Amino acid sequence: MTGTPRPAAAAAPVLLIPGPWAEDALCAQTDPDLWFPEIGGHREAATARRICRACPVRAECLDYALAGADTWNGFTTGIWGGTSPAERKQIRRARKAAAA
Questions:
Q1: Interacting residues of 53 by C-beta distance below 8 A, sequence separation 6+
Q2: How far, in Å, CA of 37 to CA of 27, rounded?
Q3: Which pick of 7, 18, 53, 63 has the fewest CB atoms within 10 Å?
Q4: What is the model's pLDDT at position 72?
C-alpha cells in the first residue's frame, strides 16, 4: 500500500459506572423517561429540571454528564444535573476556552 497512512481511530472514552453518589440521586426515585423527554417534551423536561434543583447530588451528576455520560451515539441527550444538552454544550465550550 502506498501513500500516507490512515490516522488511527480515536479511542472511545471509557465511562465509569456512577459513584456511590448516584444512590442519593432524586432521579433514581422517578420514571426514567422523565429525564429523556421526546422532542418537544417541554413539560417533562421542566419537571425533571425542577426535581434536579432539589437534588443533593446535582453537581456530581453534572460532572458525570460532562465526562460523557450524556452522550449516546455521538449526541448529547437527556436532563443531567438540571441542564439540557444545549446548556452542557455551552459549559463544555466555556471550560475548553478557560483551559486554553
A1: 82
A2: 14
A3: 7
A4: 87
Q: What are phi and psi of 71, to 5 degrees?
A: -105, 130
C-alpha cell at 68: 460523557
| CA geometry: angle 25, 72, 29, nearest 5 deg | 20
16 vs 45, more confident: 45
pTM of the model: 0.78
User: Cα(79)–Cα(68) distance, rounded to whole angstroms?
Assistant: 13
How big is the chain, counted in residues? Answer: 100
Cβ within 8 Å of residue 75, ≥6 positions away: 85
Sequence-ordered list of residues with C-beta below 8 angstroms from that of 67, at least 6 positions apart, any chain: 13, 15
48: burial class by Cβ within 10 Å (0-12, 13-18, 19+)? buried
